[in-house]
Amino acid sequence: MARLVALDALTHSDDACAAAPRRVVRGRGPAGTRSAHLVVDGACTPSPGARIAAAVPPGLSERVRRLLVPLLTCALLVVLAPAALADPAPAVATAAPVRYVALGDSYAAGVGARPDPATGDCRRSAASYPALWAARHDPASFVSVACSGATSGEVIARQVRTVSADTTLVTITVGGNDTGFGPVLAVCSTARDDETCLRAIRGGERAARWIAPGGLISTIVGVRLQAPGAKILVLGYPRLFEPGPDCDVPGVPNAVRREALNRAADTLDAALADAAGRFRGQFVDVRAAFAGHGVCSADPWITPPPASAPAIYHPTPQGYRDGYLPAFEAAVTRPWPPGPRRVVHRRTLARHRPDRPHHEGSQVPPPILRTHLVRRLLGTLLVPAALLATATVALADTDRPRTGPEVVAHRGASADAPENTLAAADQALAQRADAVEVDVQRTADGHLVLVHDATLARTTDVERVFPTRALAPVGTFTLAELRRLDAGSWFSPAFAGERVPTLAEFADRLRGRADLLVELKDPAQYPGVEKEVAYEVDGLRSGVVVQSFDHDAMRRFAEAAPEIPAGWLFGGRPTTAQLDDAAAHGVTQINPSFRVVDAALVAEVRARGMQTGVYTVNDTDDMRRVAATGVDRIITDRPRVLRKVLAG
């Protein structure tokens, strides 16, 4: 019987990993049974970043996006070598030794199946599907590093390094924590009304559509770099509840909520299956195996309430034995590799939507993996450390180095050009901003325009053109009237004639060269503006995040466009309850004032699967302090200065 070996010391330095001896020990177990286990003395195998850092040519780097970086505390570099996504080697012959590594979260660890206390907070169990398969099939080596609560970021940072070049089989179960389904279940178990639960579920589904696929793809690529020939199986999640109106189990959500939660599980599985198939992984669907055995059934294979957390809503030992294990065994015997690799259009990768058709492109030549693929997929979960450039790797945008957090130009590069104008957009691009923040309001005739203040008095010559309306609200002017105003001379005569642009004009000016951070200004003054902004930005070529101080408006925005990333702005330090509320509504960014941010707040935000951005940082000392807290993005009027500070 294969013995489960827990590797808890996964945070050692890469030097320590490189020095760690590794061996496979075979022998006899109890009652003469055969035993095989992998021994790693004191450390782990090197991470991809350590193995390739020495090859980084001086001065070369890449702007890498970080959208979903939950608890990614170890710098992990994915090398875009041809082997990363090339077709894997042919399947290992049946007689060849199987070397198996299991990665993932609590569903792979076996939290609901009497975990071994010796595995600590990771809560691994000998009754989990990886351990059961290893016990039955006696691989040459087996190690499970699955850990309760793991996000895809943690799997990449702490678990993928356990895979080695001789690994032949890897299983992955990850994505549930990326989508925040734990908090969603908590909300649905306690909310007084159905709508509160359903809003939380919609937020989780939104994360399942565009966060979870990127995390899984990054994990697969990391595994493929470590073990190009390994068979990669992605095991999904079961539906938690048995369909039907009746349920005698106390503490479970009502029928409406249970049905919606099951649909959310379907959404997550569909997104993971599509992502796995596109990037040379094999998805293993366990939903059919669990049919008839959800919570509320006569024979549940899911731990129901009132079990204590974290076992609640996890598979039982029988669920692993009769649900996961047969599906796993069947998948192992399927032919490998699967059919031809497909390449998806950039925008599909950037914002994955399983419910929309994908654009197919010509296959990328084996030596080439374009930079936009990194930015939109791998960059979502990788902390930039360095970039390997070899003669076989073609890179774009190499003139845009990136160190530390993203640089976001506040209302454009507003220290050097009039705010919220096309000139400010040009300056932001010239100063190599990663994204540009703008403020959106609506004209009297329904156009979305960029103005920060409630009136036009400070940033235009409205007092000269419309002397009786100088203090009139922005929303009382038509677009034609705004076109008559000079929005540049107040800043400098050099910008005379600048106009108030529309949101579409500004986005077109960026032309995909920088992302767009859109703030809804006073949305309560513009009923329905959330849907209008959602419609406007849905087709933009730039990556888009929409944010506001008005969290009720952002909830409405999430309902209108659950696939578009959303941020909540805070004037002060957000409370734990506010962070939980944001996570339950699918928020991806928490953006407070830089004055209240510290490393503890950044950790709290990341623990909930979100990112942290801060505004508005213009002093160089403040820039250094804020960057040291680990924030994901910094909003500044001076992107060129911030870029120099981050470069050291």
Structure explained in plain terms:
This protein has 648 residues and is α/β, with parallel strands linked by helices. The protein folds into two domains: 97-332, Rossmann fold; 406-647, TIM Barrel. The chain is 33% helix and 12% strand. It has helices at 14-19, 48-52, 106-109, 129-137, 152-159, 181-190, 194-210, 212-226, 255-278, 287-290, 317-332, 346-350, 371-376, 422-430, 462-465, 479-483, 503-510, 529-538, 551-560, 576-584, 599-607, 620-628, 639-647, and strands at 22-28, 34-40, 99-104, 141-144, 169-173, 231-235, 282-284, 406-410, 435-442, 448-450, 515-520, 544-548, 566-570, 589-592, 611-614, 633-636. The strands form three sheets. An eight-stranded parallel beta barrel has the order 8-9-11-12-13-14-15-16, surrounded by six helices. A five-stranded parallel beta sheet has the order 4-3-5-6-7, sandwiched between helices. Helix 4 (129-137) packs across helix 11 (317-332), helix 5 (152-159) runs parallel beside helix 8 and helix 14 (422-430) packs parallel to helix 17. The longest helix has 24 residues, at 255-278. The chain is elongated and about 85 Å long.
What is this entry, summarized?
The protein has helices at residues 14-19, 48-52, 106-109, 129-137, 152-159, 181-190, 194-210, 212-226, 255-278, 287-290, 317-332, 346-350, 371-376, 422-430, 462-465, 479-483, 503-510, 529-538, 551-560, 576-584, 599-607, 620-628, 639-647, and strands spanning 22-28, 34-40, 99-104, 141-144, 169-173, 231-235, 282-284, 406-410, 435-442, 448-450, 515-520, 544-548, 566-570, 589-592, 611-614, 633-636. The chain is α/β, with parallel strands linked by helices and 648 residues long. It has 2 domains: 97-332, SGNH hydrolase (Rossmann fold, 3-Layer(aba) Sandwich); 406-647, Phosphatidylinositol (PI) phosphodiesterase (TIM Barrel), CATH 3.20.20.190.
